[in-house]
Write a structure and sequence with these properties.
The chain is of the alpha/beta class. 39% of the residues lie in helices and 17% in strands. The protein has one domain: Carbonic anhydrase (Beta-carbonic Anhydrase, Chain A, 3-Layer(aba) Sandwich).
Length: 156
Amino acid sequence: MTLPMTKEPRAIRLTTPPQQAEALVLSCMDHRLIRAVADYLGARGLAGRYDQISLAGGAIGIMSDQAAPWAETFWAHVKLARELHGISKVIVIDHQDCGACKAFVGADCAADREHELVVHMEKMEALADEIRTREPGLDVELLFMDLDGSVAPLGT
Ligand SMILES: [Zn+2]
């Protein structure tokens, strides 16, 4: 007995669809903001046009000595996003009340707004400098998201 014929396999596409992405987005893993990050990027017209890596703390996690493997993972992804998808920018989105900030920087990280913004700005600007050094030619955008999903640029 022969097996019943299944549907013909789909013809292999001969032309490759465009593989370009505009940016690599780095955001925190925090479940509270996953949707807000996607909505924000979508509202900017970037839906389907960015790569994304989520690591606890975003810039805080990558710049922490306590999470060195995360930094290694991040840099590998930046390189790959460039090679595979030709990204021209890294968008870093840190956020309010971040648990990784409390764990890596200090329990009082989010105790008051000004302190919280200063901590994130320092780490994010340090990361931006490192991106520009390691991956010349990439633009860097630093953003800070509040728990209500609102976003503001951070840094200089
Ligand atoms: Zn977080």
